[in-house]
Amino acid sequence: MEAVQLQLSSEKKSLLARIKQLEDALQEMQQNMDTAKQQAVEAEKLAADAAQAQANSEALEGMKKDMEERDAELATVRAEMEKLKEFNEQQREELKGAEARYQQLLKSTAMQSMANLGGSGQISAAAPQRQSVAPTRVGAKLATNRNVFIQIVGSGGVGKTSLLEVLIKDHDPSQLQKFHEQRPNLMTHHQIQMGERLLKLLDCSGNSRAQHLVKEWFSRSIWVCVVYDMSSPKSLEQALELSKEVSAAGAKLILFGNKYNIEHGQTAQVDVMAAKDAAVRNEGIAVESSALVEAVRLALSATEEAEGLDPQTGQVGLDGLSPDGNTRSSISAAIDSVKSWFGAADRQGGRSGNQGVLRPSLKGTKAMKASCREGDVNADLRPVQELQDSESAVTCIAFGQERLHKAYILLATASKDGTVIIYRCYRTEMEIAYLADQDFPQDDDAQAGAPPADHSNIAVHSRLVGHARAITSIFFNLLEDQLVTTSIDKSVRFWNIDSGEMLKVFTDSSPVPVAAFLPFNPQVFVAANSNAVLRLVNVQNGMVLQKLKVETEVRALKFDDTGLFLLAGTKSGSIHVLEASDSSTLKFKFKVQLARGGVTCICFVNAAYGQPPCLLVNTSDSSATIIDCTYGPPAGVLTNLAVRHRVRVAHSLLPLKCCSSPSGQGYLISGSEDKEVYIYLLAKGTNYKLQYLKHHQVPVIAVATNLQDTLLASADSLGRIVLWRRMDFSHIPD
C-alpha cells in the first residue's frame, strides 16, 4: 500500500507540475493573445488612418485641381476684361478721331463752298482788302523759313504743268511766255499775279530721280498741292505717300484730284473718300477739280482764316517771303530735314560742341583706344585710306550720289594734269545702320552694290578723259547723273558719271576758273572766265543768255540756300552778290570788300544753334573768314554780309578749298599750305578753337565732307587723297 501511496504521491506531484506547466503555458498564451489583439487593434487603427489619409489626399488633389481650373477661368475672364478695355479705349480713340476728321471735313467743305462763292474764274474780291492795310500773314502753323506759297507736286503724267498753264493763262497771261520757256525744267518758280496778290508757286517734276530734291522743298513751302489723276489709282497711291511726308515736313496739304480725264470721257477709278480721309488725317484739304484755281482759292481762304485766329503769330507773307528782317526766307529747314534723313537729328541733339568733327563710322580696336590721348577730341579721328593715281596735284574733290545708293557714295577727284577720276566709297556697317531701306527707292545698281574683294571699300567708278590742263572746279548736276568740270584749257565739260563719256563741251575765249548751275533751272549754268566775264549759258543749245562784266576775275561761285542769290568771290578779295531775278537772268545787288588776298573758295552754311546763315571763305592773305548773311528788309532779300570772325590759315598762293561739318555746333575745315588740315570750332563761346589733322607731307589743297557727316576727304599737291573717319569705341569696356 505504501508503495502504491508513494507511487500515487509521485504521480500527483508530476500532475501538479504538469498542471503548473500548463497553467503557465496558458497564461503565456493568454498574454500573447492579448498582445495579438492589441496589435490587431493598432493595425486596424493604422489601416483606418491610412485609408482616411488616402481619402484626404484624393480630396485635396481634387480641390487643387478645382482651384487651378477656377484660376484659369479667372485669368481668362481678366484677359477678356483687358481686351474689352482696350477695345473700348480704341473705340473711344477712333470715335474721337472720326469726330475730329468729321469736323475737319466740315471745315474743309465749308471753306471750299465759301471759296466757290467767288466764281470759278476770279479770286474773292474781299481778299485784297487786308492787303491795303498791312502785309497779309498766315497763322503760326504756317511757319517762317518758307518762301514758296504753293508747291505743286505729284507723279508723272497727272497734269500738274497743264493745270498751272491754265491758271497762268486765266489770271496772269503775261507770264505765259516765261512759263513755256521754263517748262522743261525739273523745278520752276513762278510769280503769278492773282488779283492784287503776287503768289509764288513752285512747279515740280514727277521725275522719280528728282524726288529727293522735290521733297526738300516741303519744308520751304507754306502749302504743298499734291496732284493725282482721278482715273489712275496708282497716282493716288503715290499722292497718299507724298501726303504723309508733306505733313511731316510741317507744310499744309492740299490733296488735289485732277478731273480733266474724267471730264473727257474716262472713268473715275480712285476712292475719293479715301483721299478725303487721308487729307483730313494729315490736317489738309481735299479737292477734286479740273482747275488749279480751286486749290489756290482754298489756300488763300485758309490763310486768311489763320490770320483771323491769331494775327500776331503768322510771319510769312503771301508773297512767300518772311517779313522778319532778321529771319531769312531760306531752305534751312529743308537742309535740316535732309540731315535728319542721314541721322543728323541725333547728331545735333545728342552731341555737344566738344565731341569733335564727324560722326563715328568705324569700329575701333583696343589698341587704338589705348593710344588715344585724354581730352583730345580728334584722337579717334583717323586716316583710314589713301588714294593716289599720279603725282599731279589734286585741285578739286566732291562727294555725290549720296541719296541714290545704300551701298556706296561717289567721290569725284580732279587734278592739275586734267585727270578726273570718280571713286565708289562703300559705306561702313555703321553708316548703313544710320540709313533706312525706304530712302533708296531708285537703288537698282546691283552690280556695284558689293564692295571689292580686297576689302579696300574703294573702287574706281569711272575715268573722265578729255581735259588738257588743270581742272579748276567740279560739281554734280541736279540729278547727279552727270559731272561738270571747268578748266584752264578754256572749256566747260559735261560727263556721264557711269560710263565716263564726255557728253558736251562748251568753250570760252579764256580759262574758266569756276561755274555753277542755277538752282531753279538745271538747263542753265553760269560760268566765269579769266577776263572777268560771267556768262549764263543754256545747256541744251549752248546759247549765251546773258553776259555780265565784273571788275576782276571771279574765282569762286556759290548760291545761298534760297537759291536766289549768287555769291561771287574775286581775285581782288571782294564778294559780289547777284540776284537770280528769274531762271535765266542775274543782276548785281551789292559788293563787299573782304580781304587783300584773292577769294579761292566760298562755302555756305545754314543757320543753326542760334547763329545766322554764314559763309566760310578762303582768301590768299593767310586767313579764312566767317561771314554772317543778313536777310531783309525787304523780306527774304540778302541785304548785307558782315564779318563775324577771321581765323588764320597758311594760305598765300594755292587755290585752297574749305568745307563745313555740322558735328557738334559746326566746324570750318580748310586745307593749308603748311601740310595740315585746319579745323576751327564754330560753336558759341569756344573762341574758334583750332585743331589740326597731321598726315600729309605737302600742302593740302582741297577738303570735302559727305552729307552723312561720316567721311572727310583731304587732297594734296602730290596727288594723294586721304580719307578720314571717326572711330567708335563704345563696344570696348573702359
Question: What does this protein structure show overall?
Answer:
About 10% of the residues have low confidence. Among the domains are: 191 residues, Rossmann fold (3-Layer(aba) Sandwich), CATH 3.40.50; 182 residues, no CATH class. It is elongated. The longest helix has 115 residues. Helices cover 29% and strands 32% of the residues. The protein starts with a helix and ends in a 6-residue tail after the last strand. The protein has twelve helices and 35 strands. A six-stranded mixed sheet has the order 2-3-1-4-5-6, with helices on both faces. Strands 7, 8, 33, 34 and 35 form a five-stranded mixed sheet that branches. It has 734 residues and is α+β, with helices and mostly antiparallel strands.
